[in-house]
Design a protein that fits this description.
280 residues; alpha/beta; Rossmann fold; 2 domains; 6-stranded mixed beta sheet; 4-stranded antiparallel beta sheet; 10 helices; 39% helix; 21% strand; globular; binds adenosine-5'-triphosphate
């Protein structure tokens, strides 16, 4: 079995009426069971990549595979594909369709053709997993944005996908809601779901991701383990995304320290400083 779950091979895509293709030979591989971040400037094609990965948009050229099985657009194949790949949109309003939380979570399960009893059992389990039991019968329009975001992730996770794609999951969330969301994502990853998050938040990427994919103008320009990719990006002066704050702070001390791996959290950074500051 391949160590990669999702692969894009030389994908091209142009939106109708667009003057230039949005994806221009995009090739990438997503390692199984890793927490991967997809970064790149506005308009480089991250959301378009997600729409293709979920079978919502058909590429003009190229091959997309999941566990080496090519994406096909016939109804039955697409339904099976979407059971394995879940997409959470940046804006929960785009995702939520039913009048209440419980009804929304049941929507995708009914679409899978499950019996009423099975749907009810899965909805109960999902409400409990996502700490949504007290909101089960709440109308969606009464929820905060953070709660809506949780419901949209819960609705997708109820289908137990192998791959969860999240487009800017922390957009619009306050720090507490962001922390809660990250805890939920951590448990989703621990259960064996491969996660791909598109984001502009490089501080989050630096601390969260095992693997990073970098896009520019519809193509992949870098991929690899988080530290390796940021090391590469540092030597690309034309790449205008900036660098994570922890990385920038570390760069000021790194040459005064023994050769140790760059710290991935404030705690690690502080430990290094405590350990080595008197020796330099
Ligand atoms: N429905 C559409 N019709 C025409 N062009 C579109 C459409 N959706 C996106 N585009 C164009 O495709 C390009 C890539 O957009 P996409 O949303 O995939 O980028 P992105 O990397 O996700 O951007 P951002 O970081 O701003 O969310 C942009 O130039 C955008 O204007």
């Amino acid at each position: 079995m391949s160590e990669y779950l999702l692969e894009f091979q030389d994908i091209y895509y142009s939106y109708p009426m667009a003057t230039a293709p949005t994806l221009q030979g995009l090739s990438l591989r997503l390692p199984k069971y890793k927490k991967t971040a997809l970064i790149g400037q506005n308009g480089c094609g991250k959301s378009t990549m997600f729409l293709i990965a979920d079978g919502l948009v058909k590429p003009d050229r190229g091959v997309v595979t999941l566990d080496n099985l090519p994406l096909s657009f016939d109804r039955a194949a697409l339904k099976r594909w979407r059971q394995r790949v879940g997409l959470v949109f940046q804006d929960p309003e785009q995702q939520l369709v039913a009048p209440t939380v419980a009804a929304d979570i049941s929507y995708g399960l009914y679409n899978q053709g499950l019996s009423e009893a099975k749907v009810a059992a899965k909805v109960t389990q999902t409400l409990s997993d996502f700490n949504l039991k007290n909101l089960a019968m709440s109308p969606l329009q009464h929820l905060s944005l953070g709660q809506k975001k949780r419901v949209s992730i819960a609705g997708v996770m109820a289908l137990k996908p192998d791959l969860l794609l999240l487009d800017e999951p922390t957009a619009y969330l306050d720090p507490v809601q962001t922390r809660n969301l990250l805890t939920e994502l951590e448990s989703i990853a621990k259960l064996g779901t491969t996660l791909l998050i598109a984001t502009h938040d490089l501080d989050f990427v630096y601390q969260w991701a095992d693997w990073v994919l970098v896009m520019e103008r519809g193509r992949l320009i870098a991929e690899g383990e988080t530290i390796t990719v940021f090391t590469q990006l540092q030597s690309m002066p034309d790449f205008a995304l900036g660098m994570p704050i922890l990385w920038q702070m570390w760069s000021r001390f790194a040459d005064k320290m023994p050769s140790v791996p760059a710290p991935r959290s404030i705690d690690e950074f502080t430990t290094y400083l405590e350990k080595y500051r008197f020796k330099n």
